[in-house]
Amino acid sequence: MDRRESGIHIGTRGWVLPEDASGFYPEDLPEDWMLEYYTTQFHALEIPPLAEPPDAETVAFWDEETLEDATLSLSLTGEWGRRLAAGRDPAPLARLLEPLGDKLAVLVWPQKPPTRAAAFWPRTLHLDGTAEILTEARPGPGERAPGAVYYRLGGPGRYSPESLDRLAEYLVRRGRAGRANFVFFTAVQGGNAILDAMHLQEAVEARSRE
């Protein structure tokens, strides 16, 4: 089963958990296997922001160490991202990221995405990182317009079960309407992000069975 079909993509920013107290990874798991193990549990992953474009070896690692239905989000940050958004030729980056294929689900731009972006990445969601990223766990009033929502939830620590349950209900409703939803938790220290992602994923699965 392709886990992307639900339209609900839940994960964390990065897969390395400093001072992890969550118990997510088996104690004897080699570090080189962590990314693959992560994508057996969560198909969605936000790649940590890069100060410069990734090299071919890094892109190959992302592809080879993730399952076939992985959903990856990449932020084009720093000066190189701003130059691309301002009109620099995106062809070299498009060739570099080509091995990811449909795994590359989202590109987050440092400003309004350039009009040429869709031609180079036609199956990828392009977001304005300054305007289209949601940072509150509670859904806004009413239903958003058709399209995708993208949550990047840092929080001071773990989110309350109540707030994640409300978010799960909202995501399931949107998923059933055929709308795309991305939620990435960023407080990886201590494993908080993993614990929140696990709770939200379980809540979504429970709501989906109702």
UniProtKB/TrEMBL annotation:
The organism of origin for this protein: Thiohalorhabdus methylotrophus
InterPro entries attached to this UniProt entry: DUF72, UPF0759_sf
Superkingdom field: Bacteria
Protein's recorded name: DUF72 domain-containing protein
Organism phylogeny: Bacteria, Pseudomonadati, Pseudomonadota, Gammaproteobacteria, Thiohalorhabdales
